[in-house]
Amino acid sequence: MLAEGLTLASPLMSPIVKLVAQRIALGILLLLAVSVLIFAGTQILPGDVAQAILGQSATPESLANLREQLGLNQPAYIRYFHWLGGVLTGDLGTAMSSGQDIATSIKGRLWNTLFLAFWAAIVAIPLAITLGLIAVRYRNGWVDKLISGVALASTSFPEFFIGYLLVFYFAVQHQWFPAISTVYDGMSLGERLQAIVLPAAALTLVVLAHMMRMTRAAILNVMQSAYVETAELKGLSAFAVIRKHAFPNAIAPIINVVMLNLAYLVVGVVVVEVIFVYPGMGQYLVDHVTKRDVPVVQAVGLIFAAVYISLNIIADIAAIVANPRLRHPK
Amino acid sequence: MLDIRRIPIPALVGIVLTTLFVLMAVFAPWISPHDNAEIVGDVWEPMSAAHWLGTDNLGRDLLSRMIYGARITLFIAVLATALSFSLGAILGFSAAVFGGWFDTLLSRLVDLLMSIPTLIMALVVLSVLPSNLVTLILVMGILDSTRVYRLSRAVAVDINVMDYVEAAKLRGEGSGWIIFREILPNALSPLVSELGLRFIYAVLFLSTLSFLGLGVQPPDADWGGMVKENKDGIVFGIPAALIPAAAIAALAISVNLVADWVLNRTTSLKGGRG
C-alpha cells in the first residue's frame, strides 16, 4: 500500500502516504517495545528462574546446566539482544522440553492457525455485516432486539462453552463432523475443510456478536446524518438509503471494526485450538506454558503479538485510506 | 408483562440469579450434599436422585463440586476485580493530578501492556511464575487494571480542571485530599458502571486460564477447571463439562443484566456521563 502510494506520489496523495508511513513506523517501534515487554515478562520472577522451572527437588548439576542453557550467567540485557538478534535472523532458539528447533516446529503450526483463522474470517465478516445491516433496517423491531439479545448473550459465553456445545450436538449426537480436528501433511483441501468446520464455526460465533454490534453502531451513526435524512425525504426505500448513502460512508468504520475483531480472533484461537486439539500455534503455546518452556513461550508470544499489532496497523491504514477527507484534501 | 422495557424484568432476573450464585458460594459447606473431594460413586454417573447432576471424571458428586466451584470462582474474581479497581483508579487519578513525567511514564506503560492481548501476556508471565492463588489474583488484577487506569485517568482529567478542585488546590490541600475527597466521589458513577463489566471479564478470564490448566490447580477447581476435568467425557456423549460451562455463562449474563440496569439508572439520574 505504501509502495503504491509512492508511485502515485502526486501532491494529492502525499498526506495519506505520510500518515501511513508514520503509522507503520510507529507499529515497528511498538513491536520492538513489546519484544522487551515479553522478554521482561519471563524475567520478573524474584529469585532463580532455573529453580522455579525445575522445582525444589532439582539437583545442583541440573540447575547449573539449565542456567547455562538459558544463559542466565549473563546479564539480562545481553540475553535480550542475543534473543532479539536471533529472532530477526529467523532463529527462534531451541525448545528446552524437546530440544527441537522452535522455528521448524512453528512453521507448520503457524500455517494451520492462519488457515483456521482465515476460514473463520471468511464466514464471520459477511455474516456480521449483513446482520448489522438487517438490525439497522429493522431498528427497534423484534429482529433488532433478537439480534442484540443474542449478541449480548454470546459475549457472556466463554469460548469453550460455545465450542463444546458444538461438539456435543454436531459431533457426538449427530456425528456430522469430527470432534477432534486432526490435520496432517498430504491432506486434501476438502478433507482439511471438513476437519476444521467445527473450530471455524466456534471462532466465528466468538467474534460474530462483537463485530455485528459494532457494525450496527457504525451504520446507525451514519444514518443520523443530514444527507441520509435527505435521501429518506426524497422517497428512497430504506434498503436503497442504506446501500447507496449510508453504507459507502460507513465502510471506513466497518473496516476498522472488522480488523479489530480479527485481532480478537488471535485470542479466541488459543482456546478453540485447545478444545479441538487442533495442531496450531495456540495449542503449542499453552502446552509449553504448562511445561514452563520459556524460549518457546517467548517466541510464540512474540508472534501472536506481532500478528495482533499488524492487524491493528492494517485497521488504521484502512481507515486512513478509506477516509474521503484525507483522499481529497483541499 | 410483554413490555419488557418498562418493567426491568431482565434486571430482576439478573439480581435473583446473581444473589443465588453468591448465596451458593457463601454457604457452600452447609448446602452441598457431599464434600468437595469426596469420591461417592462411579465415574460419570448420569443424573439421579442421589446425585442430581451426576458424578464427575473421578466419581465425585458434580453438584457439590459446582457449589464449591462457585465459591472459588467468585472469590478469585472478586479479589482480582478489587485489585484491578483500586490499583487502576489510584494510579489513574494520580496520573491526572500529578501529570508530567509520572503521567507520561504510566500512560505509555499501559499503552504497551494493552497493545497485546491480555491472555497472551498472562500466558507469558505464568510460564515462569509459581502456580498458586496469590500469583493468579495478582496477574489477573494487574493486567486488568490497565483498562481501569485508562477510564479513571480520562474521567479524572475532566474533573481536575473543575472550579472546586481548583479551590481545594488554592486553599492548600494536599494531593491525597484532592484524589480521595475531590476526584473520587465525583468519578464514582462512571467507575461503578464499569465495575460489573470488569467483574464479568474477570470471571471469563479466570475460567479461560483454568480451562487451559493454568489457573486454579487440582484438587480444588473453579468452574473453568471443572470443564477441563470433564472435557474428555464430551466425545462419549457425557455432558458433565457443559454444566460448569453453562454456569459461567449464566453468571456472566446475570451480572451483565444487573450492570446494564445500573448503568441506565445512573445515566438517567445524572443526566448521562459515560
UniProtKB/TrEMBL annotation, chain B:
<keyword id="KW-0812">Transmembrane</keyword>
<dbReference type="Pfam" id="PF00528">
    <property type="entry name" value="BPD_transp_1"/>
</dbReference>
<dbReference type="Pfam" id="PF12911">
    <property type="entry name" value="OppC_N"/>
</dbReference>
<protein>
    <submittedName>
        <fullName>ABC transporter permease</fullName>
    </submittedName>
</protein>
<dbReference type="InterPro" id="IPR025966">
    <property type="entry name" value="OppC_N"/>
</dbReference>
<feature type="domain" description="ABC transmembrane type-1">
    <location>
        <begin position="70"/>
        <end position="259"/>
    </location>
</feature>
<dbReference type="InterPro" id="IPR000515">
    <property type="entry name" value="MetI-like"/>
</dbReference>
<feature type="transmembrane region" description="Helical">
    <location>
        <begin position="199"/>
        <end position="216"/>
    </location>
</feature>
<keyword id="KW-1133">Transmembrane helix</keyword>
<dbReference type="InterPro" id="IPR035906">
    <property type="entry name" value="MetI-like_sf"/>
</dbReference>
<comment type="similarity">
    <text>Belongs to the binding-protein-dependent transport system permease family.</text>
</comment>
<dbReference type="InterPro" id="IPR050366">
    <property type="entry name" value="BP-dependent_transpt_permease"/>
</dbReference>
<feature type="transmembrane region" description="Helical">
    <location>
        <begin position="236"/>
        <end position="263"/>
    </location>
</feature>
<keyword id="KW-0472">Membrane</keyword>
<feature type="transmembrane region" description="Helical">
    <location>
        <begin position="119"/>
        <end position="143"/>
    </location>
</feature>
<keyword id="KW-0813">Transport</keyword>
<feature type="transmembrane region" description="Helical">
    <location>
        <begin position="72"/>
        <end position="99"/>
    </location>
</feature>
<feature type="transmembrane region" description="Helical">
    <location>
        <begin position="12"/>
        <end position="31"/>
    </location>
</feature>
<keyword id="KW-1003">Cell membrane</keyword>
